[in-house]
Amino acid sequence: MFRYTLRQVEYFVEAAERGSVSAAAEACHVSQTGVSLAIAQLEQSLQVQLSVRQRAKGMTLTPAGQSFLLEARQLLRQAADLERSGTALGAALSGRLAIGCYSTLAAFMVPPLICGFALPNADLDLTFTEGSSDELQEMMLAGKLDAVIVHRRHLLDGVEGHFVQERVPHVLLPADHRLASAAAIALADLRDEPMVLLDIPSVRTNLLPSIRAAGLDPLIRWRSGDFEAVRALVARGLGYSLLMQLPPSDLSYEGLPVVARPIADEVERSDVCLGHPTNQRMTKRVEALLDYCRATFPPKGQGINHSRL
């Protein structure tokens, strides 16, 4: 028999996330005494001190409390899933679904997911958070996100990737470049060319090493952390770039043409996947999102299946 209640766990999570018992009491519409008593009873049941509460500094978690918070968030989420499963079998998707999306993928994947997945499920509270792969996965492992859309090569320990769409890097060139008409480009042909680098952590730690392993040590002349700025610099003839994402438009923001060509050499792929904590069971909402992603985004190449929208 359990020695604690879900209500006690809920009050603890609220107080931990809001930093004080008073803030948790206000959010839960109960008295501060009720929240304090619930947390004390929870600590007594677990026989461990979860927090230190000081009048001036609010509530601070102990190391044991920080560890328990991760498990408590998951417990509450599973309890909510169980309640919905018991009362709404066969009904439409409902409840909270918090998804992280790697920033350079967001423009390609978030709009069709909102239009084709979120809007038809009116009772589903779907939210997206954009950021770096590491940041999003750490949020997910901390219980703040349900799943993340990232590149497989970016996966952290403790995260399992479920394939969605193939991704291989391509060469982006100005339209009048000497290699623009080539069917595919050997990396050796770019050895003396200036490069415009998409200067973000995943490119520096994943794409560049794989390109160097394939035999090209690029001459980086210009850098930008903005995807479209890189395309604009290439369109201006300031160098080539190596990118994972391939927009359907062959124009920069200035209206200047660019040309994308495949790489002739063998270069490591970095497929798009839906990441989920390895030690947790997928909720029905995450499973439904994965199924929708696989039906909407073609497994090879890029783009979407417009018949799904």
From TrEMBL:
One of its GO terms (molecular function) is DNA-binding transcription factor activity. Residues 4-62 form the HTH lysR-type domain. Keywords: Activator, DNA-binding, Transcription, Transcription regulation. PROSITE patterns: HTH_LYSR. SUPFAM superfamilies: Periplasmic binding protein-like II, Winged helix' DNA-binding domain. The keyword Transcription applies. GO terms for cellular component: protein-DNA complex. Belongs to the LysR transcriptional regulatory family. This is LysR family transcriptional regulator. It comes from Rhodococcus opacus (Nocardia opaca). The lineage of its organism: Bacteria, Bacillati, Actinomycetota, Actinomycetes, Mycobacteriales.
